């Protein structure tokens, strides 16, 4: 602000920056280089931190910028192997945009751009969730050549911290999408377990490993989203507790099935440790939101390993 002392100066500088970002997003200039790509994601993630949403929406071409940033984010999630360390910067961008919506005055023009933001955020949320689910098969097929994003605890925590505000922006839609992935994965997992023994068969064991990886992501996502709710939050919409309940029911059913499998085999058949950690993460967030803190505490779990 010291370099740009007046609002007019800030507006001119922001307009030039937004125009430059649009040009890079449109032409993908220099983004084939990984270092450039990472720094560009950092720029996007920091943009809203340095400017108010009301300033952004007044710039020329704001809606085009939104759409280009959304398409770039979707592609980045789909190519997560190349951009793992950059994902949370993109999630930060959308989280900050969404969090600022209630504070934009109508005369700033922000409300007129709300439908565009809603459409972009929905695409971003779905692309992120789908990409993480699909990453499980990619990692398994690579036979160790591709690093598993679930193994990067720091990056995973940063991503989970960004999810609640983005998913709850259009919570019913996001929850329906999560359930559209959770229910088939649960049904397939139960079917595989019905024929699986500690000794095999090998194909069933591999299928169980893949499904447990997918369910691990879904449990982490549900835990993160529930952790973003506060019973005292004035912006929380009526009925969100019911959506939380629907998501929680699936996780608790999964936990019950995992426990039954373990106890019925005398401890010989157990799920992967990462799925157990995801279930513990969910339990932490649920306890914090609905059991421990009067009126809800807000925020996610302190750590993935409790």
Automatic annotation (TrEMBL):
Protein's name according to its UniProt entry: Exportin-7/Ran-binding protein 17 TPR repeats domain-containing protein
Cell compartments where the protein resides: Cytoplasm; Nucleus
Keywords (A to Z) from UniProt: Cytoplasm, Nucleus, Protein transport, Transport
GO biological process: protein export from nucleus
Keyword check for Cell inner membrane: no
GO molecular function: nuclear export signal receptor activity
Superkingdom of the organism of origin: Eukaryota
Domain spans labelled Exportin-7/Ran-binding protein 17 TPR repeats: 141-292
Database matches in InterPro entries: TPR_XPO7/RBP17, XPO4/7-like
Main location: cytoplasm
Organism: Heterosigma akashiwo
PANTHER family from the UniProt entry: EXPORTIN 4,7-RELATED (PTHR12596), EXPORTIN-7 ISOFORM X1 (PTHR12596:SF2)
Family classification: Belongs to the exportin family.
Lineage, top ranks: Eukaryota, Sar, Stramenopiles, Ochrophyta, Raphidophyceae
GO cellular component, one term: cytoplasm
Pfam families attached to this UniProt entry: TPR_XPO7 (PF25795)
């Amino acid at each position: 602000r010291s370099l740009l002392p007046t609002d007019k100066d800030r507006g001119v500088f922001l307009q030039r920056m937004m125009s430059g970002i649009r040009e890079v997003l449109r032409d993908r200039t220099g983004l084939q280089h990984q270092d450039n790509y990472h720094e560009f994601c950092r720029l996007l993630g920091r943009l809203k931190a340095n400017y108010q949403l009301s300033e952004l929406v007044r710039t020329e071409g704001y809606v085009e910028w939104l759409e280009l940033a959304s398409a770039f984010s979707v592609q980045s999630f789909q190519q997560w192997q190349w951009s793992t360390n950059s994902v949370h910067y993109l999630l930060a961008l959308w989280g900050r945009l969404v969090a600022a919506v209630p504070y934009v005055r109508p005369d700033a023009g922000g409300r007129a751009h709300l439908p565009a933001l809603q459409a972009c955020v929905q695409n971003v949320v779905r692309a992120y969730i789908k990409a993480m689910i699909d990453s499980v098969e990619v990692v398994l097929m690579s036979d160790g050549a591709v690093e598993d994003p679930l193994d990067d605890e720091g990056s995973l925590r940063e991503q989970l911290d960004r999810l609640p505000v983005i998913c709850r922006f259009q919570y019913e839609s996001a929850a329906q999408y999560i359930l559209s992935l959770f229910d088939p994965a649960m049904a397939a997992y139960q079917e595989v377990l019905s024929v699986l023994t500690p000794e095999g068969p090998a194909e069933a064991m591999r299928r169980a490993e893949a499904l447990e990886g997918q369910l691990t992501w879904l449990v982490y996502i549900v835990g993160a989203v529930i952790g973003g709710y506060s019973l005292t939050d004035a912006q929380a919409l009526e009925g969100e507790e019911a959506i939380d309940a629907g998501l929680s029911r699936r996780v608790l059913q999964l936990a019950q099935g995992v426990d039954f499998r373990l106890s019925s085999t005398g401890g010989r058949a157990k799920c992967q440790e990462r799925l157990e950690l995801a279930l513990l993460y969910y339990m932490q967030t649920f306890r914090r939101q609905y059991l421990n803190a009067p009126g809800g505490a807000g925020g996610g779990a302190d750590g993935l390993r409790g």
